[in-house]
Specification:
It is built from 14 helices and 7 strands. It is an alpha+beta fold. Strand 6 and strand 7 form a beta hairpin. Helix 1 packs across helix 3, helix 5 packs antiparallel against helix 6 and helix 7 packs antiparallel against helix 8. The longest helix has about 35 residues. The N terminus is likely disordered.
């Protein structure tokens, strides 16, 4: 059958027949040839309808999950992606796209590291290629925030519109990527391996992880996002925007520009600047609280009980730069591999109640910097760890006394 079949229901039935052959053991190349004869063009909605109908007819989600990468391979040549839909900067779809672009950059650096590693003699030290590989792998661990936001915010909205198939399959594939990256991270912490041994890791875990992430990026951009943009209402997008900060950002921060309805800000439990936070020893408006954190002569970072960064202060002279992209990130992935063991030990000792404070002092860019970690507890229950960083250079140089008022800076005109 060579003519183009325009009837959507017929195309979906034809897709199902081809996919069933693939599940029955037919070679992908054979199935692709048959598909090209029957279905010349299809779009994301027909791919989604095909998988949902297969599940409705009794095909287990696990079977579809195990074969969905092959589904993608055999349908890729006939899938016609819709034109890219323009959205404002900072719109949830814009942020998801930019995160995927950042992930592509990390994958590119990992591929180059593996290529450089393969060029080394088997008995050589892995050196720079291994370091670059570890750094790229560390960046990719940020993908958990990207997936969590997709799974909890995007999928929830899809399910309200009666679309459940993609979320079930994609979530399972996300979990597979997480496991691959976890195994890869554990392997990359090993020491004293030769280049030849690292090549074996690269050929198995390394390449498998890269391929899995690239495949999910393809599915998100050619199936998930077009489906969401065609389906979601403005209220859906506003709800996703309001819920997103709790999951954090992957490698990049959202841009500014998107303005959701005011009710989304309220429903997302964000306080307006004049609203009050009631504390055991008083009350402060959000504006006042933000001002206090911005004025303190120390830098604060709080890591919750699950080891995820959930807050940092923004003073005018921050010692160690912070990006909002670290919110929601495992703190272990915010440190170079050589220091992760120390971070894990501090957190373990705090969580077990063995210690309450750990402190360090270093020379950093001409400054004497004091770094302290405090276990935060409430009624003995571990809530997380607070990092307090302070530049002590000026304080260490103080001598004698100052008993009279004397400003270190000249008065500023026009400030009331």
């Amino acid at each position: 059958m060579s003519e183009i079949i325009d009837n959507r229901a017929h195309r979906v039935r034809s897709l199902k027949e081809i996919i069933r052959k693939l599940h029955a053991g037919h070679a992908p190349e054979e199935v692709k040839g048959q598909l090209a004869q029957i279905v010349r063009e299809t779009d994301y909605s027909e791919i989604v309808a095909m998988e949902q109908e297969l599940m409705a007819e009794g095909m287990p989600v696990e079977e579809i999950t195990s074969m969905c990468d092959l589904h993608s391979q055999v349908t890729r040549e006939v899938l016609v992606p819709p034109p890219a839909r323009a959205v404002p900067p900072g719109h949830p779809a814009d942020t998801l796209r930019r995160e995927n672009e950042a992930l592509r950059g990390s994958l590119l650096r990992m591929r180059q590291a593996l290529k450089d590693l393969r060029a080394l003699p088997d008995d050589a030290e892995a050196g720079a290629p291994l370091l670059a590989w570890r750094q790229a792998s560390n960046e990719l661990m940020d993908i958990d925030k990207h997936y969590q936001r997709k799974e909890h915010a995007f999928f929830s909205a899809l399910e309200r519109h009666g679309i459940t198939g993609p979320s079930k399959v994609m979530w399972a594939k996300d979990d597979q990527v997480r496991e691959l990256l976890k195994d890869l991270s554990a392997a990359l912490r090993q020491q004293d391996a030769t280049a030849g041994e690292w090549k074996l890791v690269a050929a198995t875990l390394g390449e498998t992880a890269i391929n899995a992430i690239e495949e999910m990026i393809y599915k998100e951009e050619n199936i998930l996002l077009p489906m969401c943009l065609d389906t979601f209402t403005e209220d859906d997008w506003a709800e996703i925007w309001a819920a997103s900060p709790r999951y954090g950002w992957c490698l990049v921060e959202p841009r500014t520009g998107y303005q959701p309805p005011e009710r989304a800000v309220r429903e997302g439990l964000r306080l307006a600047g004049s609203e009050t936070v009631h504390l055991p020893t008083g009350h402060l408006s959000l504006e006042q609280l933000t001002g206090i954190f911005s004025t303190l002569p120390v830098d604060l970072t709080f890591v919750d009980a699950d080891d995820r960064v959930c807050f940092f202060s923004e003073g005018p002279d921050r010692i160690f730069a912070r990006s909002k992209a670290i919110i929601g990130r495992k703190v272990q992935h915010c440190h170079p591999p050589r220091s992760v063991d120390v971070v894990d030990r501090i957190l373990h000792d705090f969580r077990e109640g063995r210690q309450n404070v750990a402190e360090f002092w270093i020379h950093f860019h001409g400054r004497f910097v004091h770094i302290r970690y405090f276990a935060v507890r409430e009624d003995g229950r571990y809530l997380g760890t607070l990092e307090v960083t302070q530049d002590l250079t000026r304080l260490r140089a103080l001598e004698g006394e100052r008993r009279l008022l004397e400003y270190d800076e000249p008065p500023r005109e026009g400030v009331v």
